[in-house]
Write a structure and sequence with these properties.
The chain is mainly α. It has helices spanning 2-12, 14-18, 21-42, 59-81, 97-112, 115-128, 133-147, 162-168, 206-221, 225-241, 250-257, 313-328, 337-356, 359-383, 388-410, 417-448, 460-498, and strands at 170-172, 180-183, 186-189, 276-277, 293-299, 302-307. The longest helix is centred in the C-terminal third of the chain and has 39 residues, at 460-498.
Length: 503
C-alpha cells in the first residue's frame, strides 16, 4: 500500500514523495499512540499507596526511550529524505514549494519530539477519568476539612502580619507568645484544636483555605455538631469507597475531638495505621503518649508505636493530590506544548538550512556561531551584566538578516551569504523573545531602582514586568506564528537567492 501511495505522490506531488511524509507521519502517529497508551496504564491510581511508597515508576525509562527513538527515527528518515534534493539540482519549483517543504519538515520534527508529552497526556487523561473536575474538587474540599481533625501541624500564627491575622481572626497573644492564640475574642492554647492546620489541594488557594479553616473553627465554637459530623461521614464514605480502613465512625470521631470549650485535651486521630518504629531516645524529655498511642513488640530489636484511633488520611491525601494536580496543573498543557513546538521548530530549521545551502556552509556556520557564542559568553561574564549576551546575540542575528538581504538586492554573487543565511535561520526564532525578555529585565531593574516607590511589589514597573510574565506563553505562540509568516517570506527570497552566482 505504501509503495502505491509513494508512486502516486512521485508523479503528482513530488514534494510529499521526496519528504517521505506519508510513511513518516503514520509511523510517528503510531509511536505517539503507543506512548499515550503507556501513559494511560501508568496513570492508574493505587489508593493504598502513600508518599512513603512513592517511586518514579517508568517515567525515567519512558523519557530515555522517547529521546532514543526520536534520534533513531530522525537519522533513518534523513537518510531517505536527503537522497534527492531538487532544489540543489535547480529542478523547476513553484514559489510556495520551499515553504511547503519546510512546513512538512516542521510537522515531522514536531511529532518526533512529542513522545514524552504523549505519555504524560495519557497519564493525565487516566487520572482525570476517575472523577469530573467538579466532583474531584468537591471531594478534595471534604478531605481538606477532615484533615483539620487529624493529627498534624499547628499554625505559626505568631509569624502572621496583622492583615493575615485579621483575615482568619486568630492572633497570638503578645504577652504569652507560643502559648496562646485568640479567636473570636477568646484565648485558646497554642496546641489546642483551634490552632490546627488543614491540608490543601491545588484546587484551592490560601484565601479559600483560610475561609474553610475559619468556618470549621466557628462550627467548633458554636457546637454545630451536625455540620462537623457531616464532614466526618462524607470523609469516611470516600475512604470506604476506596476500601481504606479506619477504626472510628463519625460519631466516635466527633466525641474524640470535641473537648468543648477549650479543645485542649482532644484525642489525636492518626493519619494511618502503618505504625512507626519506637525509639526510647525520642522520649527522653517527654513521657510516651499512652493516651493516644500504644506500643507493639514486633521482635527483640523492634517495637512499633501505633495510634489508637486512625483514619486513612495519608493515602487519601496522596492520591487526591494527584487527582487535583491532573486538573489544575497537568503535565501536558498550553505551556508545556511549547517545548515540543520549539524543539520541532529548531530541528526543522537545522534540516531546512542544510537543504537550501550545503554541508560545507552549514558546518562553517555551526563552528562560527559556536566560537562567537563562547566569545560572547566570556564578554558577558567579564561585564557581569545580564543584558550583554542577549544584546550581542540579537545584533548577530540582525547582521545576518541585513547581509542576506543586501546580497539579494545586489544580484551579483552569493559570496559568503550562505553562512549568514544559516545563521539567520537559526537565530531568527530567538530574536523577538530576546527583545521581550530584555524589556522585562529593564522594567524589573527600574522597579528596583525606583527610590520613590515605598513597596517593590506595588511599583508600576514591577507590575508591568509581572503582566509580561503572565503573557509569556501567549507571546511564544505569537512568536511561532511570526516565524511561520517569516518562513513564507524567506522561502520566496531563498528561491531567488539560489539563482545568484556562487562567486
Amino acid at each position: 500500500m505504501f509503495k502505491n501511495i509513494q508512486k502516486y505522490l512521485l508523479i503528482n506531488h513530488p514534494i510529499l514523495w521526496n519528504t517521505k511524509v506519508v510513511p513518516a507521519i503514520v509511523i510517528l502517529l503510531v509511536i505517539n499512540l503507543t506512548f499515550f497508551l503507556l501513559g494511560l496504564a501508568e496513570g492508574k491510581l493505587d489508593f493504598n499507596e502513600t508518599q512513603n511508597d512513592y517511586n518514579y515508576g517508568i517515567d525515567g525509562t519512558v523519557i530515555f526511550f522517547s529521546v532514543l527513538i526520536s534520534i533513531v527515527f530522525i537519522v533513518v528518515w534523513l537518510v531517505y529524505y536527503l537522497k534527492n534534493n531538487s532544489f540543489k539540482s535547480f529542478y523547476p519549483k513553484s514559489n510556495f514549494s520551499l515553504f511547503k517543504e519546510w512546513m512538512i519538515l516542521f510537522s515531522i520534527c514536531f511529532l518526533t519530539t512529542l513522545f514524552s508529552l504523549s505519555f504524560y497526556l495519557g497519564k493525565d487523561v487516566r487520572i482525570r477519568s476517575y472523577y469530573s473536575e467538579e466532583e474531584a474538587k468537591k471531594r478534595c474540599e471534604i478531605l481538606s476539612m477532615g484533615s483539620y481533625f487529624v493529627d498534624g501541624s499547628y499554625s505559626n500564627n505568631q509569624y502572621r502580619n496583622y492583615a493575615e491575622a485579621k483575615t482568619v481572626e486568630a492572633v497570638v497573644d503578645t504577652a504569652a507568645a507560643d502559648t496562646h492564640i485568640t479567636f473570636n475574642n477568646r484565648k485558646y492554647s497554642y496546641f489546642s484544636l483551634m490552632n490546627k492546620n488543614l491540608n490543601s489541594f491545588t484546587f484551592f488557594d490560601y484565601k479559600t483555605d483560610s475561609i474553610r479553616e475559619h468556618k470549621i473553627k466557628l462550627w467548633l465554637v458554636n457546637q454545630q455538631k451536625d455540620s462537623i459530623k457531616k464532614v466526618f461521614k462524607d470523609y469516611l464514605a470516600i475512604a470506604k469507597e476506596h476500601n481504606l480502613k479506619s477504626n472510628i465512625d463519625e460519631n466516635k470521631w466527633f466525641d474524640l475531638i470535641n473537648d468543648y470549650p477549650d479543645f485542649e485535651n482532644h484525642k489525636l486521630i492518626g493519619a494511618d495505621n502503618d505504625g512507626y518504629a519506637y525509639h526510647i531516645a525520642n522520649y527522653q524529655n517527654t513521657a510516651f503518649d499512652s493516651v493516644n498511642k500504644y506500643l507493639k513488640v514486633i521482635s527483640k530489636d523492634l517495637t512499633m508505636e501505633y495510634y489508637k484511633y486512625y483514619v486513612p488520611e495519608n493515602r487519601l491525601n496522596y492520591n487526591y493530590d494527584k487527582i487535583s494536580d491532573s486538573w489544575t496543573n497537568p503535565t501536558f498543557r498550553f505551556e508545556t506544548l511549547l517545548i515540543s513546538l520549539y524543539f520541532g521548530l529548531a530541528l526543522s530549521l537545522l534540516i531546512f538550512s542544510f537543504r537550501v545551502t550545503s554541508g560545507r556552509n552549514w558546518l562553517i556556520a555551526v563552528i562560527s556561531l559556536g566560537v562567537i557564542n563562547i566569545v560572547f559568553g566570556i564578554i558577558a561574564a567579564i561585564s557581569r551584566e545580564d543584558l550583554v549576551y542577549p544584546t550581542l546575540l540579537f545584533l548577530i542575528g540582525l547582521l545576518a538578516v541585513i547581509y542576506f538581504f543586501l546580497t539579494l538586492s545586489r544580484k551579483k554573487s552569493k559570496n559568503i551569504s550562505a553562512i549568514f543565511l544559516n545563521s539567520m535561520l537559526w537565530i531568527l526564532p530567538a530574536m523577538l523573545p530576546i527583545v521581550f525578555f530584555m524589556i522585562q529585565e529593564i522594567l524589573q531593574d527600574m522597579a528596583r531602582n525606583d527610590i520613590y516607590s515605598s513597596e517593590y511589589t506595588k511599583n508600576p514597573y514591577y507590575l508591568m514586568a509581572e503582566q509580561m510574565d503572565d503573557f509569556t506563553p501567549i507571546f511564544f505562540y505569537l512568536n511561532l506564528v511570526f516565524m511561520i509568516l517569516m518562513m513564507l517570506l524567506l522561502s520566496f527570497k531563498i528561491k531567488k537567492w539560489r539563482g545568484l552566482a556562487e562567486g
